[in-house]
Design brief:
Blueprint lengths: L2 H15 L6 H7 L1 H17 L4 H14 L2 E2 L4 E2 L4 E2 L6 E2 L4 E2 L4 E2 L4 E3 L11 E2 L4 E2 L4 E3 L3 E2 L4 E2 L4 E2 L7 E4 L4 E4 L10 H4 L3
Parallel strand pairs: 1-4, 2-5, 3-6, 4-7, 5-8, 6-9, 7-10, 8-11, 9-12, 10-13, 12-14
Antiparallel strand pairs: 14-15
Length: about 190
């Protein structure tokens, strides 16, 4: 996929998720969440080639301009949209799936000083509400919804809604009948 096709895809995702979006030119020019994701792709490519300083410098420069910090080691899927992104932090070993919507103030962070995988893995089509914190090496299944200001410290199956501090899981409305019950998976 060409870089221009990817940009068009991201702009379409922004228009889908943001009812205030007026048009593709406005989105291209002023949506800081998209700018952060686009620059992350460049820094991530360098990071994967073994470069360390330049990608980190790019991520810090973009944090200065957008208020969004995405570590160059993090893996982001396609059509990730960060809406009103100020204060978003995505850690080094985080993995974010396709079509994920992230609101402002979200942290995908680690706990402690352990090495290896220490940040969350987020499935496809997940919505993460404003101020939510996902901490540690946890996994959220596809189609989950995380409520605003929830603190998620345990993994959750697909089609789960997570709310509270610490977050409690319950089946998400509209879940397919064959989806496992969240109570069976997540100890409340």
């Amino acid at each position: 996929m060409s870089i221009f096709a990817r940009i068009r895809e991201d702009i379409t995702a922004a228009r889908t998720h943001d009812p205030a979006a007026r048009g593709p030119i406005e989105i291209f020019l002023v949506y800081s969440g998209l700018h952060a994701v686009w620059w992350h792709r460049a820094s991530h490519a360098l990071w994967r080639r073994g470069r360390r300083f330049v990608p980190r410098a790019i991520s810090q420069l973009i944090r200065f301009f957008t208020g969004i910090e995405i570590h160059p080691g993090a893996t982001l899927g396609r059509r990730v949209f960060i809406d009103h992104g100020m204060g978003v932090v995505i850690g080094e070993t985080a993995v974010v799936g396709d079509d994920v919507l992230i609101y402002h103030g979200v942290t995908l962070g680690g706990t402690g000083h352990s090495s290896g995988k220490r940040h969350p893995t987020v499935g496809d089509r997940v919505v993460i509400g404003a101020g939510a914190k996902l901490l540690g090496d946890i996994e959220l299944g596809h189609d989950c919804a995380v409520g605003s200001n929830a603190v998620v410290v345990r993994s959750a199956p697909p089609w789960t809604t997570l709310t509270g501090i610490p977050a409690h899981a319950r089946p998400r409305r509209g879940a397919p009948a064959e989806t496992p019950d969240a109570a069976d998976f997540y100890v409340i």
